[in-house]
Amino acid sequence: MSTTTSVRNAGFEHMLHMLRTQNAAKIDVVAPATALRARGGAIELSGIEPVVDGHGVTLVDGLYVPTASADTTIAAKLGIGSKYLRFLRTERPDLFDANVNGLLHGKSKRTATGATSVIYPADERSFLLRLFRGQDGEPGVLRALLSDRFGMVDNLDLLTAVLDGIRQADVEVEIRSCDLTDSSMHCKVYSPAVEQLAPTLLAGYRNPFADPTLEADRQRVTTDLDAGRRLAAAEGQGYEPGSEPVVFAGFRFSNSEVGSGSVTLKPELFVRICRNGLTLPALAFRKVHLGQRMEGGTISWSQDTVKKQLDVISAQARDHVREWLSPAFLARQVATLEERAGAPVTEPQSAVRVLGRELGFTEAEREGVLRHFIAGAQPTAAGIAHAITSYSQTVADPARADTLDDLALRAMALAG
To answer: Its domain of life (predicted)?
Structure first.
């Protein structure tokens, strides 16, 4: 299981290298339930045709250890609680095996006459299994157990398609950070050429990461070795933090190769002071992964099928980039936000507690947002939004951080 599956706050080149390494290790197969058997908390495949590709001949049969996200997909397909199944795999692999095998293969018994009586029928479905091949004799990695109608859009293909859309739009951009987990990819882009003053949105706001404790929290979740230097360089742009209330036009895009999400592009306003991203989820473009039913065996979609999907994504990226990274779009969004940004927040503890309940924050998230609100020293509705998006930079799970950023402007509206 030596294939790396996660990184936080990575640079573009680091992300690109990881995706290329992962692509070289990928195997995708459609197999009937009868070809799967749980053994020792792993999934054993048997009767699968070998893969013949540029890497030679790879035997698919063998053991594959599920990732945490794969546990979720197995649980969903078999109707088992995901937390329960994950607990069994780590603490009681014998019961993991019994549950999974019982549901996949059913139960039969022999009668007194020697005939076989089916008590519970075997699962008749076929599944798409997304795998990483094992290396040096180690077990492989089971990334997901999905429907055989799952339409695959791989992270590297999406990244290439979005970059092609940006090229067609002819807009200057920088990829400011990338995150990768065993379930999703997230990339953040902004245009340094498209900026707007937002004096009310950023009135009195200070960089909360000037507090060494909060900066240490951000560095703690950063797994890119160069990210600390990169963040520091990005923030030292020749001005004192807080002196220039500037936001840039930007957007984010994300993907899941393992069924936990869709291809998503959404605009955001990138705050120069502390690299917060205020996303606009209501304007997002989403494409759900759903394709035609796939036949059994190893999967290699036709180049024509893949190209048609990616051409649509590239065209959408091109059109959205032209809109979202335009000065007119940024000016309209800032003007709208400035109308609510200055509403005072006089009781921050009470406000954060109420908003946290409304938006589904955990207790730890409420405490973290409050710390960032105090450090930001902006006692307004905008300060609440910035506290959420700066706190999200200290959250280890990129998907949860992305969700928090989506809630920031809603929190500002509620606080106003």
So the answer is: Bacteria
